[in-house]
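Below is how a single chain appears once it has passed through the pipeline. First comes the sequence as given, then the structure the pipeline wrote out for it. We keep one example in the README because the format questions we get most often are answered faster by looking than by reading.
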Amino acid sequence: MQPPDSLKETHMPAGEKALIVQDLVKIYKGASSPALSGVNITVPAGEIFGLLGPNGAGKTTAISILSTLLRPTSGSVRICGIDALKHPGRVKGLIGLVPQNIALYAGLTARENLRYFGRICGLKGKALNDRIQFCLELAGLENRADQRVSTYSGGMKRRANLAAGILNNPRILYLDEPTVGIDAQSRNMILEKLFLLKHNGTTLIYTTHYMDEAEHLCERVAILDEGHIVAEGSPKALINRSPGYASLGDLFLALTGKDLRD
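Resulting structure:
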């Protein structure tokens, strides 16, 4: 599946740095410790990069900063060569966000939601209609597009959430646990579509609690714990460097512990 010709965007050449994060710190008022403490990440264009960690590790804080929704206490973020902290308006059109919570109007249909969000992105006319159709088809919702979101199953809502996140054909797409709590079929479809987006040149920053999913999907991962990156590399390399661990899930528990993080 290819985007309509009128909506194709020139993505960065593979190997160019789509995202550069340096010494990122976030301290919330009244907190006893930083939510993020000196985080450094570099992601080449066209890569699927996993940001992993237990509850409270700092993943959602990081995604909020990288998507310009939250300002850090210190540090720098460059998106496609642009200083995102100095020029957030310039990078908003380059990024897309699929949040953990369903960010749709339940009383509207999927098509109405996409039309509303597409207009906010500055799309209109044929370009908007073409993009809506592409996103509905990618999410497997073209035959249910005119039903209210309130009638959708959990998997359909997750797929509609993805459709909304890619309306502006982003160069970088942030995904915060996009498959949480859904059936195996919808989960599998979403993962297939993420590979398709990568093939079309999109860089993906991906958080998940499913270690098997990260091992299958991500070319590289960073494991966060208590605001620090405790390991980074390809899933295979991380496992090979740690004898005695057969999977990314085993290594994750060894690095972050088995205590509950409520």
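The domain at 5-9+47-57+92-256 is CATH 3.40.50.300 (Rossmann fold).

See the next section for the split statistics.
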